[in-house]
Amino acid sequence: MKDYLDNSNKKMKLALQLVSGYGGEFQSWRLPDSNERAYTDIDFYVEMAKTAEKGKIHTLFIADTPSFGGAGGGTDISTRSPAFPLEPMVMLSAVAYATQKIGMVATFSTTYNLPYNLARQLKTLDTLSKGRLGWNAVTTGTRETAYNFGDAPLPNTTIRYEMAHEMIEAVQTLWGGFSENAYITDKTTGIFADMSKIKPAFYKGKHYQVKGALPIPATPQGQPPIFQAGPSPEGIELAGRFASGVYANPFTIDEAKAYRNILKQSAIRYGRNANEINMFSGFMFTIGDTYEEALARRYKLLDFMSKEEFEGQIRYLSAMIGVNLHKLDVNKPLPESLQNQAIPHPQDPRSPRAVELIKQGMSPKEVLANGVINYHPVVVGTPKDVADFMEKWFKAGATDGFSLAPDSQKGVKDFVEKVVPILQERGIYHTDYEGSTLREHLGVAYQYSVTKIH
Predict the structure, then answer these.
(1) Using an 8 Å Cβ cutoff, are 284 and 369 in contact?
(2) CA geometry: angle at 63 spanning 59 and 68, to 5°?
(3) d(CA 340, CA 288)
(4) Between 233-242 and 157-175, two packed helices, what is the crossing angle to 10 degrees?
(5) Phi-psi region of 157 (alpha: psi -120 to 50; beta: other; left: phi over 0)
(6) Which helix (H) or strand (E) is 173 found in, with range?
(7) Is the dihedral of CA 441, 447, 448, 450 positive or negative?
(8) Phi, then psi, of 437 in degrees rounded to 5
């Protein structure tokens, strides 16, 4: 791999996903130490953000889509907490007032918004937070969302990414129209603003057009950095052109290194420095003072599932390892003969881990408790176990940092109080913020107006 994957002189960067206020496990709202009303408790959400700030976490991250948003993107929240929070712009306004340094990144659709409204809202929140906002620009590819915006069918992938490029161009053009030195406010001369330095956008694309100027001055970081999520070729091109941060979902170090290399190369193709784009690998964990304590917590989450849901997980695990588990005692290790028959499913990158744990003698239930079918890699164990995983990936050049999805609310506090000190002692995580803006936290340059393509 190229030397730009070398992290030997770098510190890892961290984003924290609070999901809908509960953590990454949709049953965690039932845990005795959870605030079961966190979904609508803005004060509690703010306290979680303040805890993250104590741990010097670079930014919060809110995944979102403008539709119902149940667990896993579905609409059934009869027993599981939602996958998405209340409207993120409003949520982050409350967080901005209660915090001083931590960044705030939220997802806003490039398909189901209009440039002027979105540019105005994002820049207002960036102003309110004194330059701590980032925009995760996502094309939104679900029919459920399309239904919420009229009868038109969901645009195909090509069109959605055409719209995404135009939306970001239009929004950045609007952001840069109010020149940095146009905001005068001179009481003596009576000049509030220099109108010769405030330019209309006059942006005309195939999908979006906007003429007017945006009456909001530059923020301390100029304008919000762009984030991107999605590994498609179109997504990689969008990231290479615009993104300062990318949320990724690799399951192995080799997979992560390959994807990080692709992202860096995409940035280079657009005339950017490879280090201008930071990859955040999704990572989940459950922390205990011992492995057994952490495992007991994971068992409790499994026990909260309905019989049908748990059987569905057993069925999924069976497919992952090529062994029918339904007639076996899921609380006991597989017979050695069946362990030897287990093979990874070739189309599921999580399968090798599942097979590895089965062959270590874990029961199917313990394998599930170790998160083998979660949407990110999972560590169940001590603070040191969590730190070891992160250090191994980071030092291997597999990622610039992690997008953390703790199992629960308690996981946020445990990470800040127990894992952060270990990472700091090992010299791979900062001891204080590098500045006051999100761009400074990310180590990317000040920017104002549209991204230049060389």
Answers:
(1) no
(2) 150
(3) 31
(4) 10
(5) alpha
(6) helix 157-175
(7) negative
(8) -110, 160
The answer to whether the CB of 434 falls within 8 A of the CB of 14 is no
Contact 98, 126 (CB under 8 A): no
- Go through 75-97 and write b for each residue having 16 or more CB atoms within 10 A of its CB, e for each that does not: eebeebbbbbbbebbebbbebbe
Name residue 380's beta-bridge partners: 286
What's residue 453's pLDDT? 56
CB 385 within 8 A of CB 379: yes
State the pLDDT at residue 73. Answer: 54
Structure tokens at 411: 């996981």
Give the residues across from 193 on adjacent strands: 183
Residue type at 367? V
Residue type, 189: T
Handedness of CA 77, 83, 84, 86 (dihedral sign): positive
Q: Are 212 and 200 in contact (CB under 8 A)?
A: yes
pLDDT of residue 48: 97
In this structure, how many other beta carbons lie within 10 angstroms of the beta carbon of residue 262?
15
- Cβ 45 vs Cβ 88: under 8 Å: no
Burial class (CB in 10 A: 0-12, 13-18, 19+), 287: buried
pLDDT at 3: 82
Q: Which 8-state DSSP code applies to residue 448?
A: -
Q: What is the number of other CB atoms lying within 10 angstroms of the CB of residue 253?
A: 17
What is the model's pLDDT at position 74? 63
Residue at token pair 């899921």: 330
Are 15 and 59 a contacting pair, CB within 8 Å? yes
Crossing angle between the packed helical segments 253-269 and 383-395, to the nearest 10 degrees: 50
On the 0-12 / 13-18 / 19+ scale of CB atoms within 10 A, 143 is: exposed
- b/e sequence 160-195, b meaning 16+ C-beta within 10 Å: bbbbbbbbbbbbbbbbbbbbeebeeeeeeeeeebee
pLDDT at 76: 85
Over the chain (454 residues), the average pLDDT of each successive run of 10 is 86 95 95 97 97 98 85 75 93 97 98 97 98 97 88 92 98 96 97 97 97 96 96 96 97 97 97 96 98 98 95 97 96 96 95 97 98 96 98 98 97 98 98 98 95 61
Residue 218 identity: A
pLDDT at 295: 98
The angle formed by the CA atoms of residues 92, 97 and 98, to the nearest 5 degrees, is 95
Q: Is 0.85 topped by the overall pTM?
A: yes
